[in-house]
Amino acid sequence: MTKRTGLIAKKLGMTRRFSADGVSSAVTVLSLEGCQVIGQRTQDRDGYTAVVLGAGDRRPSRVNKAQRVQYANANISPKAIVREFRVESAAFLDVGSVLQADHFVVGQKVDVIGTSVGKGFAGAMKRHNFGGLRASHGVSISH
Is the pTM of this model over 0.90? Predict the structure, then answer.
């Protein structure tokens, strides 16, 4: 079985799904925002094989000239996020093809990588969602 390319998605949130016998399981809701193949890395030219994917739209004025030329040659609008996925040469996709959720097979296992948003060194109210007391009407130094 050949190694297939991944997708670039944005996490919208969590929900739950009920099976036919009523058992609940947690699921993550993802949004695919125009995930498209931008280029290919071949063994002869680059020394490895990979597929370059882009997601989300970006204004052409916010992209440097070298990338604008690459997007123009592929006849693709500029993308906000660009990532490479290592694949075998048999799993190459055509440049410009759009990837959807049907790219995966039903029941296929998926590895997920995410980036959490950091909040720095937080105080107790922000970190543990404490409410605090009223800020007026006689509350002393107990805030």
Answer: no
